[in-house]
Design goal:
Length: 295
């Protein structure tokens, strides 16, 4: 179990992580969602022992991971900068990763390098943006680390490479369950992988729950304008749009069975809201009042 208690990260006057308390059960895939600058990388850096919190604690199975060699070896943190030597060839980078990590699977690393068509003779400095990201995915997945943190690893990867990444991640996770935290802005693409969703906003925890529970927070109601408005009255409306006489509102809050039945009887259509749409609504740009109300 990973436990964060009142975790705070500051850079001078900037509060990047603002007193987050969170428990992560082992062997699940977590989606960490937050708008730009919301504190995701800062939070993940502390989790991976790359940075000490300014206040609060992190423990992994009751132990502080900071400068704990065994726990650090058991954590793979892949981020934009990759933390490899640019002049090294891919073969050397993979070899080095294997020496560092007891759980490294060299055969799987070779398989992944083939999947992403990485030429082991190329130097890291010669890789394109997408190829660098693919190398990050190889390092992150072949590490088979009990705690695997992938912080926006897809940057520059084309749609085919990203699809291969999601496929490989899911297959390897099913064969070798471990705790995986994915931070991403391509939410809808990856949402199918998340078992739990963590949303942070301006450094604070907005919510942490099962993805199914999260999805049930929103419902899109479509139908004749008057009927939709009558149904939406008194509920929290996250968004609305109209086309001719047809109106659609996105409502916040799960509907009870009898409410859903009443909506259908009134000629309304109910549809789930995508994780990304819900996230966008919940963390609406410039709408501090809304996110505060949801805390
Ligand atoms: N090294 C640093 N020095 C000063 N401020 C920093 C530093 N790193 C991050 N910040 C600030 O801390 C806040 C959180 O940044 P962080 O990178 O953790 O957010 P993020 O959610 O990962 O953002 P993004 O989605 O844009 O990558 C931002 O206001 C950012 O400007």
């Amino acid at each position: 179990m990973i436990s964060l208690r009142d975790l705070t990260v500051r850079y001078g006057d900037t509060v990047a992580v603002d007193g987050i308390t969170l428990d992560l059960e082992p062997n699940k895939i977590y989606g960490l969602l937050g708008r730009n600058g919301s504190g995701k990388t800062s939070l993940l850096s502390v989790l991976a022992s790359y940075r000490r919190p300014c206040a609060g604690t992190v423990t992994i199975d009751g132990v502080d991971p900071f400068e704990n060699a065994a726990l650090m070896r058991a954590t793979a943190f892949v981020r934009d900068s990759l933390d490899v030597t640019d002049q090294d060839r891919i073969a050397k980078v993979l070899d080095f990763a294997g020496r560092l990590r007891p759980t490294w699977d060299a055969g799987y690393a070779e398989h992944l390098a083939d999947v992403f068509e990485l030429d082991r003779r190329r130097r890291v400095s010669a890789l394109s943006r997408g190829q660098r990201s693919s190398l990050g995915v190889v390092l992150g997945l072949a590490a088979r680390a009990p705690l695997t943190i992938l912080d926006e690893v897809y940057l520059g990867m084309d749609a085919g490479a990203r699809a291969a990444f999601y496929r490989e991640l899911l297959a390897d996770y099913l064969a070798h369950p471990r705790t995986i935290i994915l931070s991403t802005h391509l939410i809808e693409e990856v949402a199918g992988l998340f078992e739990q969703v963590i949303v942070i906003d301006r450094g604070r925890l907005l919510l942490h729950e099962d993805t199914d529970t999260f999805r049930a927070r929103g419902v899109a109601v479509t139908g004749p304008a008057a009927a939709v408005e009558a149904f939406a009255a008194g509920r929290t409306v996250l968004g609305e749009q109209s086309l001719g006489g047809v109106r659609q509102v996105t409502l916040y809050g799960a509907l009870a069975d009898h409410e859903a039945e009443a909506a259908r009887t009134a000629g309304l259509t109910l549809a789930p809201v995508g994780v990304q749409d819900l996230f966008v609504h919940l963390t609406a740009v410039g709408d501090t009042a809304r996110t505060e109300a949801l805390r």
